[in-house]
Every structure is written in C-alpha cells, then in structure tokens.
Fold this protein.
Amino acid sequence: MPDTSKRPATVVHEKYERLVKLAQRQATIKAAVAHPCDDVSLQGAVEAARLHLIEPILVGPLDRMRRVADDAEIDIGAFELVGSEHSHASAAKAVELVTAGRVEALMKGSLHTDELMGAVVSRQAGIRTARRISHCFIMDVPDHPDALIITDAAVNIAPTLDDKVDIVQNAIDLAHAMGVQEVRVAILSAMETVNSKVPSTIEAAALCKMADRGQITGALLDGPLALDNAISPAAAAIKKITSPVAGRANVLVVPDLEAGNMLAKSLSFLANADAAGIVLGARVPIILTSRADSLLTRLASCAVAVMVAAARRQSASASIL
C-alpha cells in the first residue's frame, strides 16, 4: 500500500470528504474487522462506527484487543468481540461471519494482507464467487477534478486477458456504486497504438472490442492509452486522439501489478494523493488499509464499502422484483 506517513498536513482531500458524506446517507453496514490489534486499526474501525458507516465486530485475541484499547484510550465497550488465538484464526473467523450472513463487509486490521486474503480465497471455507477477485485504489489526487480508480495494483500480479475482463468489470461496478454517472475506462499501456511487440496493447484493444460486444458492460472503454493521454485533455489533443475517454478517464486499468503499484506510489509521493483501497469479487467488499494510511483514507475505504454493499442490496431487491 502507498506510504502516506510523510504527507504535508495542509493537503485537503475534498473528494474523500464528499464520499464519506454520501455513504452516510446509506444504511450502516456490519463489518467484521480482522485482528484490530494495534491502535491505528482499532481507531479506524471505531471512528467509522462513530460516523455511522459501519457496525464493527472486532475479531482477535480478546486480551490483546482490550489492552490496545486501554493503552490508546479507545472505548470498545459498545462493540461485539469475537475471540481468536492469533492472526490466521482472526482472518478465518472473520470470514466465517460472512459465511454465516452476519456481516456485509470485511475490514483488515493489523494482520498481513496475505493472511486475510488466504482465508478469503480458501477453497474449503472461503468466500470467492465466479468473479475474479481484484483490488481497486480510489485515489484522491489534489487538483485533479475526479477521484481516480486504479486497478489492479495489489492482488493480481500478471493478469491474463480473461482475468482483466473481471478486473475491468469490478472497477466499473465500483464506480457506479460510488455514484459516478459516466464511467470512462482507460486501458493503459506505454503507448496509444496497437503493437504486436507490446502484449498489453493487444489486450487493451481486445478488451475494448469485448465491451463493444457486450462482454463488458456499464462503461465507455478506450485503449491502449498512455497515461498522459488518458488523463490529460491537452495530451490527447496533441496526439490527435478523439474519444469520450481520452483525456477524461476516471478508471485506469494497468497492465500488471508492478505498473499499478508504481503508478499509485508515484501519485502518493509526488502528487500528495491519498489511496483508499477495496477488494472486490468476493461475496462482500473487503476494506484493505495500510498502517500508513491517514484516518480520512481509512474512513474513505469504509465509505466505499458502504456504497458497494448498498448497490448490492439494491441489485438483489431489483432481481427479486
């Protein structure tokens, strides 16, 4: 996850603040918080509860959670606690709460991401669906008009074309859940022309054609696009690229995890961006946070999960009708 610990204190992230306010209009969701055994993760869950975003169920070693709460002067008396022996057990028990239908979201505490995701994707007790699991950063970049969704920079290392179909669709569904009226997806590469020597350009072209054929729905797609002509109208004009996406993309699909990681960290360190994180494709949204995240970033991640859960409830209701 991008390290934002040295971020200037004067940076204001109004897009995240708007997102939190929008999520507060939705019903509060129950969330299993896996292993909140440090002050940072515990405070984030409690503050999200105070703002009526989530109703946390804290899953971890009981004595340890209580000791952390006492040391940090955090009141957890109002919350349900589920005991576990260690971090792996915390992840497994948090997933069990999803399977039992008791929660609508998972939230990462102070355990490693691999521990939580291992429980999520377990073939015996996991909560996978037919959809490929993927991660989205929701980047609040100062001076950029819209929040940028970047995918996938945390889960899929070298996704295949089939994987990217789900990665793109997950991001589109997320954008709609966040209230984005027109979702504009740029399939990124190092260039904006199809080149047989650069596989990401061929996959980008294929994804766009798949959208034309209805295999990907709910958005405008264009690609391959280089980063500059995906987000800068001036760069798109110079390259004479005419499309409703070029220069105006609000979803950026990277070729692989390495490219996505470098893009997200570049925005964090060079543009003072914050990066809220969520994993999609499982039975519930998974709130992924980093110890270095600011409190507002943690709240934004919770807000995104609230919006995704609300969209899923609406979809379920519509399918019943």
Notes: The longest strand covers residues 54-60. The CA atoms of residues 211 and 217 lie 6 Å apart. Residues 4-9 have pLDDT under 50 and may be disordered. The two ends are 41 Å apart (CA to CA).
